[in-house]
Amino acid sequence: MQGREQWGTRIGFILAAVGSAVGLGNIWRFSYVLGEGGGFAFLLAYILCIFLIGLPVLLAEITVGRRGQSDAIGSFEKIAPGKGWKLAGILGVLSGSLILTFYGVIAGWVFYYFFAYLTGTAGGVGEGEYTDFFLNFIGSSVGPVFWQILFMAIVIGVVYFGVKKGIEVANRLFMPLLAIIVVILAIYGLTMEGAGEALNFMFAPDFGQLGNMDVWGMAIGQAFFTLSLGMGAMITYASYLPKESKLPSAAGSVVALDTLFAIFAGLMIFPIVFTFGMDPGDGVGLLFMTLPEAFGQWGTGGTIFGVFFFFLVGIAALSSAISLLEVGVSWAMRRFDWSRQKATLTAGIIITIVGIPSALSQGAVGFLSDIPLPGGTFLDFVDVITDQYTLALGGMITALFVGWGWNKVEVLRETGLQDTTIGTLWIWFLRVVAPLGILYIVWNNFYNMFIATEESLSYFVLHVLQYFL
Ligand code: PFF
């Protein structure tokens, strides 16, 4: 048996963790939830959630991984054998792999857009026709599946080469590239006519929406998703850290860089949205319909912006998807005693195949479209289940484990916080604030989905049964 793989350097780990965190969530998801959540109020709620819940849980996950020196499930087993805490890891491996099934589909759309801007296809679409352009593409069958498979092949290729030679090398290249492109595009955005309105939208104090619990629900969901929490990714990445590296500053850097990136993404997107009189609350289609429409009206400048923009989003998605695949691969290598190569190919291919129904669920093919799935299409369904439930529960169990289930002195020694006020504060955040916050949100999501709508749980179950019987 060979020794366990490790990062080449501490910065390699930080870059990879930032790579995992910065993804579609910071650009596609962040911009539409910010738009729907009314701008500033959402931003405020989001930043509070990031620091009060996200950062403590991230540090908890990193601590579990580094101490356990094993995958998301194995780490819990090693630290607290036979105690049932590994449920967090099981949820993690399941959600990580499930998320990758549809993440690969959406990333495939992004790759297609990049290609379409590069070859001029997307630049030549007429005014008002970008909605059809998008819907025709995702509603077809060959296109979305082709781009999903292409994207997944690259992800599999990187993970195949291992922690140091594959994941670390890729992120060392990708992260600086992302930073440069997002800063340039954001600066450009700030020179546009709509910049003032965008800044106003994002930063002008308006506390009205803060009483709206849905805004908080979206904020905490976004905090978990964007920091890659609750799905074993950070546990897995931290398990490749050597014993001596400092954990709190690493967690702090990841949170700071991820948040900064999201804000820059907002500065790049919203000026365009306002300059061309689009609606920031357009929802999921913001990236694929609203922005391209604006690029189209802008002309050649918009096409060039489009090429860089979708390249940026594609790379961000790639580095996140790599971490999602690594969760399952790391587990399979230990569980079945497989080589990295065998585990990567097996997990990668299974996840790609399970993602195909999501790729086919939009529009014409409409996979499973006759069941009233919560969320809408099959893709939305997998998204909603993971985003709103399994991630949060996995994160909550991890917080409870580090807060209550593991000896406090040992935990603090492991993180390097020792007996400091910050250490004690952190433990209490994990014990009380994070679990209560998460529980509230899960309940709120459940209430909105099944109780406050006429589609009750029993109605849904009935339809599922009807479909299969
Ligand atoms: N954090 C990523 C994003 O913001 O797009 C998504 C993600 C990646 C979630 C990896 C979870 C994960 F394990």
Tally of distinct domains? 1
Q: How far apart, in Å, are the first and last alpha carbons? A: 48 Å
Mean pLDDT: 89
What name does the CATH topology carry? Sodium/glucose cotransporter
Query: C-alpha Rg, in Å?
Result: 21 Å
Indicate the proportion of strand residues: under 5%
**Major beta sheet summary:** none
Judging by the overall fold, what is the CATH architecture? Up-down Bundle
For the secondary structure, the number of strands is 0
Bound molecules: 4-fluoro-L-phenylalanine
Total count of helical runs of at least 4 residues: 19
| CATH level 1 name | Mainly Alpha
- Silhouette: globular
- Structural class, judged by helices and strands? mainly alpha
Order of helices and strands: HHHHHHHHHHHHHHHHHHH
Poorly predicted sequence stretches spanning 5 or more consecutive residues: none
Fraction of residues in helices?
A: over 70%
List the helices and strands and how they pair.
Layout: H1 10-21, H2 24-36, H3 40-68, H4 72-79, H5 87-118, H6 130-139, H7 142-160, H8 163-190, H9 195-203, H10 213-226, H11 233-238, H12 247-275, H13 290-298, H14 300-335, H15 340-359, H16 378-405, H17 408-415, H18 421-451, H19 457-468
Helix pairs in contact: 1-8, 1-12, 1-14, 2-10, 2-12, 3-4, 3-10, 3-12, 3-16, 3-18, 4-5, 5-7, 5-14, 5-15, 5-16, 7-8, 7-14, 7-15, 8-12, 8-14, 9-12, 10-16, 10-18, 12-13, 13-14, 14-15, 16-18
The structure holds 4-fluoro-L-phenylalanine.
4-fluoro-L-phenylalanine binds at residues 20-21, 23-26, 96, 99, 225-226, 228, 231, 233, 320, 323-324.
